[in-house]
Design goal:
alpha/beta, Uracil-DNA Glycosylase, subunit E, six-stranded mixed sheet, 6 strands, globular, binds iron/sulfur cluster
Length: 211
């Protein structure tokens, strides 16, 4: 058995169906990175979290969705975007014939900030290496940033949402097209804005080839 297979078995990952050729960098490094995050103590959020919410979905997906931070229900289930905002995100995806298994969903920080406050710059910075490595490993064809916190973190921009959406940005110095959408939690608070997400989906379909 190869070293990689051995390590995956130690992590209780079923490797019986894998041959060594298909145990690529992605599978190995992703599980490794998740294990690292699950035990992370790099910032004060480690003291108050219940569970680390690393991310969920298809880690070979062409679409990576990044939100702000886990909330109460995410913290209890270790899954990103559950609850009402998560349900709305699922509906948005279904409207373009995607399920949550077709995309990968994560957040700028992997642990819940108490009382659902915004993550601090220090916390975002401490957690940055996890998100950066997830982006590198997934190597998506498009990144969708949900809300201002994610937009600020990835685009390093403090421009208002209204001027960030409906534009194609880039992730760092890569050519990965990056779009900004309103956060589903904001859309729940401001139902009149919901139509803007449909405009953003049309913008994505017309400008980005994710096939
Ligand atoms: S938020 Fe990120 S850096 Fe902070 S403890 Fe959780 S995983 Fe570690």
């Amino acid at each position: 058995m190869s070293r990689k297979k051995e390590l995956l078995s130690l992590m209780n990952i079923d490797v019986s169906w894998l041959n060594d050729d298909v145990i690529g960098k992605n599978i190995f490094c992703f599980e490794d990175l998740k294990l690292d995050a699950d035990n992370c103590q790099k910032c004060i959020l480690a003291k108050t979290r219940n569970k680390v919410v690393f991310g969920k979905g298809n880690n070979n997906s062409k679409i990576l969705i990044i939100g702000e931070a886990p909330g109460k229900e995410e913290d209890l289930t270790a899954e990103p975007f559950v609850g009402r905002a998560g349900k709305l995100l699922t509906e948005i995806l279904l409207s373009i014939k995607l399920t949550r298994d077709d995309v990968y969903i994560t957040n700028t920080v992997k642990c819940r900030p108490p009382e659902n406050r915004n993550p601090s710059n220090e916390e975002i910075k401490s957690c940055a290496s996890y998100l950066d490595q997830q982006i590198e490993l997934i190597s998506p064809k498009v990144i969708i940033l949900l809300g201002k916190v994610a937009a600020e973190r990835i685009l390093n921009s403090s421009e208002p949402m209204a001027s960030l959406r409906q534009k194609i940005h880039s992730y760092k110095n890569t050519n990965i097209p990056t779009l900004v959408f309103y956060h589903p939690a904001y859309l729940l608070r401001s139902p009149n804005e919901k139509r803007k997400v449909w405009e953003d989906l049309i913008f994505m379909r017309e400008n980005i080839n994710v096939s």
